[in-house]
């Protein structure tokens, strides 16, 4: 039983790929050991290897514990030729000798075996397990070549392999013995490399358990977890240098710097207080996105004129690194201020015309075209909201829609693209547009994820919905439809944003009308000539229904079948769909409801089978044609119930409607107990079928209960 | 503040030190290319040399013009024309990163006193049909070098690949000299009188100002379009003629080879560079509409890719596909 260490030494792996690659290598090695029967002890019992994994920008490594020295021998029965071929007249033929030679046995040790096809020669052979070193050396190169990289390269002449960056060394040790794994022109040895600058370079690793300590001695912290711990501690310590200061927690940034460093430390730097007059959004973006600095705030939560930089070295004794970083930040902030001031010389109003030169999408024209469409669509939305009694500023929406994209022409946005929208909002405010206009522009890209908040105002919500609906409409019309993992225009995010915004603002907007209007915006445009002639609206509505389903399940936590049942009865009005799902979810586990679900499924099946058999339901139900008391009772009960349910539905009192529907269980149960639907008498049968059809029609308007998943007893 | 301000290399010393460093490591020192380019990559010393199997290492300074980046000499960090030092190592040696770090030491940076990181930054130029994988090298939070492993150039897969190191000389000099404005960089210092210094601003400010005015305000849009069309037409015409110099059955191998070798593809490439620059100029001038933009980029790309593919054939690294027109003609004459 041994420990196995594999380390792949590379040039700097992109931070965003490191954690995933570490996990994948660990998984691959673990699966290889299990598949090739190289586990012992507890690991073998669980058939799961015990793996530790490591990664730094320059390496991926795993240590597997409890690796068998070799595979167990396996007894195997090998089939040979048919006896009648192997023996002629009781004498062995060359075929018999050949088989004996192949399995390495004397002819008299060969057995005979009877199979359905006749008698054959057979032999019991012991397959000697191979040593772990042999198996690993042979199988690992394929595993390494199979690691997924979002972007990879080749570097050796003849391009024999691709990897994320050039491979420079490998270590593979089974306890103290080198396993000569060969990949990418490198053969594994027992020498790793330490920190580029802080160590002398090469470091010998005696055996797997000495790996992390050897690296620690060469100024490399080999696990992400420990680097994160160190960085957190160092951030705390550095922040304490200033009174009342706190660093702003930022999980994404933290994970990035963990994956950019081998031996992290932290410095606290400062910048001139006068930069604090720039908007905080701009300052934080420069620090976080461009310089990978943590922002620092004072006790009141306000941005402080400090930053924290995570270094890939141990210290900054002369303050040179701090000085250099401060210099860079100063230049960046100066730039930002310069851009801010320059941008003010051309107010947003004057930039509308400039949008003609900014491409929205190559086939969909300029942002000027888009602004025109979005302003019209936003106006339509506002009119609908207005009509439904929502109070909002129509003029503000129109103004915001025209100005929304003008910040794309601003220097500050060209420099900090992630601030688009935000900068427009800030400029609108600085240029004395109304607060409603500024807020709507500021929030236009919200929500950027399911976790992000929706636009704060109704004006902002209308603009954000119009902007996204316009993009979805245009892209779908061009045939740029998201599929699988491919969604280059982030249309799913846009659609999720529409759903979430409509839901949280409780907006009475129908999706069909929204997208009809959005598509109408392209009517007569240049773009329209490029449109494909398929059912764009249908495709969009199916896509939106999928997004609504995702929202109800993932963001709202409703059960799959409750959502399916509800959306089968309509997915146009999002607020209504939510209310119906809530009602269905609240009753779906009651016994009466489960029973109704089963009955509805049964009705559907009967109707389908009848139709397949060419047996038609009566066009309208004639209650007098029904005979049995049970069916008469059901017809009567359902008629009363349908009226009540209908009126409750009109008032959107879905929970009460559900309770009403539940009351139908006894007559339905009695019907199926007593009545044979497929009667011989044609009129009777047709009316029984019509009764079922009417039940389905009347009671599936809130949800299609046949979609409810029940546990069959 | 890598070194004392007084002992920090001047701008010209920085160039001399880097060139000296790479010359000692076997690079051919080339001169800046004398056609306007947006980056050192566009010099034929990179664009054409990285094609094909022939090893080549070179280093050269390349003033790089980006009309839209001009700021009238007002912005301390932005230039219309910045200076790159470009190093091409084909194929890249295994210790290419170590060599690079060594070059930083050679200009006076004690790496033990600084923080250096290689952060993912892949490079792509749709206009050149070129892309590569690499990093931006960050020195105390400052991007000082773009380090790229070229994978494709002019639409041609590269084998072997090349490593391209592009040092931003103004940034590096400002860092070494610890100044906040590019214009304050000491370009030269009189060796006999250290108080007599020539700042970067004296050497280049007028150029930044005047070219910003030209690029943004005064370049004649119509004429610039016309120039672009003329250069494009000539480049395209040369590429077409090269098609017809390809093997025809009547010629013997020697004559064919000679006709191929003397064909001025290098001239065609200059014309393509002209187009690229004029496009950038029109862009800065705000003269390219949304609908035109994609199309013009595609046209220039077609020229760049055309030159690269032809060059590979000319050098004998790829079999010449007989041009379709030639084939037709032969068929026609045979019939």
TrEMBL record, chain A:
InterPro entries reported in the protein's UniProt record: DALR_anticod-bd (IPR008909), Gly-tRNA-synth_bsu (IPR015944), Gly-tRNA-synth_heterodimer (IPR006194)
GO biological process: arginyl-tRNA aminoacylation; glycyl-tRNA aminoacylation
Stated name of the protein: Glycine--tRNA ligase beta subunit
Positions of the DALR anticodon binding domain: 600-694
Domain of life where this protein originates: Bacteria
GN (gene name): glyS
Organism: Candidatus Korobacter versatilis
PANTHER family registered for this protein in UniProt: GLYCINE--TRNA LIGASE, CHLOROPLASTIC_MITOCHONDRIAL 2, GLYCYL-TRNA SYNTHETASE
Gene Ontology molecular function terms on file: arginine-tRNA ligase activity; ATP binding; glycine-tRNA ligase activity
The EC number(s) this enzyme carries: 6.1.1.14
Localization annotation: Cytoplasm
EC category: ligase
Recorded family membership: Belongs to the class-II aminoacyl-tRNA synthetase family.
Catalytic activity of the protein: tRNA(Gly) + glycine + ATP = glycyl-tRNA(Gly) + AMP + diphosphate
Nucleotide-binding keyword on record: yes
TrEMBL record, chain B:
Catalytic activity from the UniProt record: tRNA(Gly) + glycine + ATP = glycyl-tRNA(Gly) + AMP + diphosphate
Annotated Gene Ontology cellular component terms: cytosol
Source organism of this protein record: Candidatus Korobacter versatilis
Enzyme Commission number(s) from the entry: 6.1.1.14
PROSITE patterns referenced in this protein's UniProt entry, alphabetically: AA_TRNA_LIGASE_II_GLYAB (PS50861)
Protein name: Glycine--tRNA ligase alpha subunit
Subunit structure: Tetramer of two alpha and two beta subunits.
UniProt keywords, alphabetically: Aminoacyl-tRNA synthetase, ATP-binding, Cytoplasm, Ligase, Nucleotide-binding, Protein biosynthesis
UniProt cross-references to Gene3D superfamilies, sorted A to Z: Bira Bifunctional Protein, Domain 2, Class II aaRS and biotin synthetases, domain 2
Chief location category: cytoplasm
Compartments it resides in: Cytoplasm
GO MF assignments: ATP binding; glycine-tRNA ligase activity
Signal peptide interval: none
Assigned protein family: Belongs to the class-II aminoacyl-tRNA synthetase family.
Any single GO BP term: glycyl-tRNA aminoacylation
